[in-house]
Specification:
With 68 residues, the protein is mostly helical. It has 1 helix and no strands.
Length: 68
């Protein structure tokens, strides 16, 4: 089964290691998230999903090789 990576409508975002965490409003003193926070959240989720897709495809390839 082929799963395509999730594309972005521009260049990949560069998120500093300190900012690589999902930010939720519940832990911001109920202050709203700004646009950068929301973008970072989606980019972190997108890159994680794409890594999982790559690992899954690699495992499928290895399994097919073992099955002969």
């Amino acid at each position: 089964m082929t799963i395509n990576p999730l594309p972005l409508n521009g260049d990949d975002l560069t998120i500093s290691p300190q900012a690589q965490k999902i930010k939720v409003r519940a832990y911001t003193g109920d202050d709203p998230l700004d646009y950068d926070d929301v973008d970072n959240n989606f980019e972190l989720l997108r890159t994680t999903v794409n890594k999982l897709i790559a690992v899954t495809q690699d495992m499928e390839t290895r399994l097919k090789a073992l099955e002969g």
